[in-house]
Specification:
Elements: H1 3-29, H2 36-39, H3 59-83, H4 85-113
Helix pairs in contact: 3-4
Keywords: Cell membrane, Membrane, NAD, Quinone, Translocase, Transmembrane, Transmembrane helix, Transport, Ubiquinone
Subunit structure: NDH-1 is composed of 14 different subunits. Subunits NuoA, H, J, K, L, M, N constitute the membrane sector of the complex.
Catalytic activity: a quinone + NADH + 5 H(+)(in) = a quinol + NAD(+) + 4 H(+)(out)
Length: 119
């Protein structure tokens, strides 16, 4: 066997033993602090949450989040294209124009269906 394989196996076994041991020792010997601020659900300055934790949300919130992700991913594809536009030439410009037109068509469809109307 090669020494690298033996060394990597020893490191793996050592980590597999040390990490759980340290976690258990932290739980057993670690400090425990209980108090009014520690037991609150939020320590960010919010005193109490309004409403129940299992309340229903409108589907419009989820739909808006999905639409945001779709059009956000569009921007991710546009940055590298904008950086390398000179290297891509006319063909790259035409391809991105087709891509933008497809996304614009989708946006027009969304607007005509009234998805973004909150009334």
């Amino acid at each position: 066997m090669s020494t690298e394989l033996v060394l990597s196996g020893a490191i793996f076994i050592g980590l597999a033993l040390i990490i759980p041991t340290v976690m258990v020792l932290t739980v057993v010997f670690g400090p425990r602090s209980r108090g009014g601020a520690k037991d609150d659900p939020y320590e960010s300055g919010i005193k109490r949450m309004v409403g129940m934790a299992d309340q229903k949300f409108s589907v419009k919130f989820y739909l808006l989040a999905i639409l945001f992700l779709i059009f956000d991913i569009e921007a991710v594809f546009m940055y590298p294209w904008a950086v390398s536009l000179r290297d891509l030439g006319v063909l790259g410009f035409v391809e991105m124009t087709v891509f933008i037109l497809l996304l614009l068509t989708g946006l027009i469809y969304i607007l005509r269906k009234g998805v973004l109307n909150w009334r």
